Amino acid sequence: MSAILFLHQLAGIFAFVVAPLAMAAAKGSQAHRRWGKLFFYSMLVVCLTAIIAGIVRPNPLMALVAVFSFHLAASGYRSLALKKLHEGQRMAKGDFLLHGIAAVVNLALFLWGALNLAFGSASNAGVIFFIFGSIGLFIVWRNVHQFYKRSVDKRAWVYMHMSGFIGAYIATVSAFSAVNLTFIKPLWLQWLWPTIVGVPLLLWWIRQYRWEFAKGKRVSEVFPRMGR
């Protein structure tokens, strides 16, 4: 168990460090892809070790939050294979599995938080898991909805890629803050300040690219090394 927890912490620290390197690298470059893949696989290790620790200790919420975080990273990674959504690309078996598991987990987080807030007390845990569950359910709905919309922006995969990976990094920073920034009070703010700060910045960043595309630019022009 000590080895599992050590691996979990090591992978979390690695993810915390490499994600900014991927964001700073030229989009589509070899460096961007390399750091992005390393971030994805480190998040996979974080998720798997958290599930094991959550079952053994037991700490089910640790496992649920880890799956919530990995779903974001996996959605960002999977988006690279969804460049034909605007042409009617359909869900693969892997998509059903990914979003199906995430829907169950995020619903559990949402209900756990909502029931605590409604029938318990306005506890820190209730607020934290209600917010995480709500965000997770929205991401699942947004990603699945893309497969069934009549009209899909042909750059939808770009926005899914950004929101997935950056959302996963926000979750990573949240975990780092929860463990290390204990001076932040109350506890819910210690967990949620990365979301409060990061989500508006993410939406602003996506909006900048939408403006670029609205000017008639292609993906290959906005991201020269990424192509279509």
Could you explain the architecture of this structure?
With 228 residues, this protein is mainly α. The protein has one domain. The chain is 77% helix and 0% strand. It contains eight helices and no strands. It is globular and about 50 Å long. It starts with a helix and ends in a 6-residue tail after the last helix.
Notable traits:
8 helices; about 75% helix; about 230 residues; mainly alpha
How widely separated are the two ends?
45 Å
Whole-number mean pLDDT: 90
Q: Portion of residues in helices?
A: over 70%
Number of domains: 1
**How many individual β-strands?**
0
Strand count, sense and barrel status of the largest sheet are:
none
Q: How would you spell out the order of helices and strands?
A: HHHHHHHH
- Which blocks of ≥5 consecutive residues have pLDDT under 50? none
Relative strand content: under 5%
The secondary-structure class comes to: mainly alpha
How large is the radius of gyration?
18 Å
Count of discrete alpha- or pi-helical segments spanning 4 or more residues: 8
Question: Quick one: overall form?
Answer: globular
Detail the topology: elements first, then pairings.
Blueprint: H1 2-24, H2 30-56, H3 60-78, H4 93-119, H5 124-145, H6 156-180, H7 187-214, H8 219-222
What is the structure about, briefly put?
It contains eight helices and no strands.
